[in-house]
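Trying the structure run again after the queue cleared.
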Amino acid sequence: KRASADPGINALLLTGSGRAFSTGYDLGAENYDMSIEDWRADILANAERLYTIWSAPIATVAAVNGYALAGGMELMMACDIAIAAEDAGIGEPEIRHASAPPSLFMPWTAPIRHVKYLMFTGDIVDGREAAQYHLVNKAVPADRLMEEATRMTRRLSRVPVPGIKFNKLAVNNAQLIAGLRDSWAYNAETTAQLHCTDEGRRWFRMLFEEGLKAFLDAREGPFRALDGEEA
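Done. Tokens:
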């Protein structure tokens, strides 16, 4: 918000401070016994934070280092341009514990068959695959990521401030007219209902009672076994 309010800024670079872009929301912060109404409000609040980035009157560039998972992937897609390290890990693994993304950016970013693959399996793809799926603009070797992302941000900064602002308004409005916000509202409803199913509550109860390690082992174990069979 501060960058958006500065009349001299028209481009902003976002990246992770450590070995990951963002691994998503704090799973331990959720209450497994929340009502549909509480979940709906929580999901919409998270989506609104992402909307603030998506609708900012400046160009945003995501430099995806390491993992961009769940809410981290949504943050990446909220940016106008995304450049990923070839060895990045991008996906929505929360699908595997009967959950869903908060904002449903993916159908507005990638072809629908790729969307269904990622949202039905919870698989994580690397930067190269993400570029093939049109989730990011391009993938580069990890040691060149910041150089490429900085170059893109500097290129955008050469455009007059109103040029970015009004062209972004026009492009974003095309998606709004097509129903982006309506799709998010529907997603909040279906995700709230999903979390309140017996299966949804079972996973959140496991996290609350048994801890994160046991939760992740139970969630990922069947897929590790399957991957081992296929190898």
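Residues 46 and 102 are 6 Å apart (CA to CA). Worth checking whether this holds up in the mutant runs.
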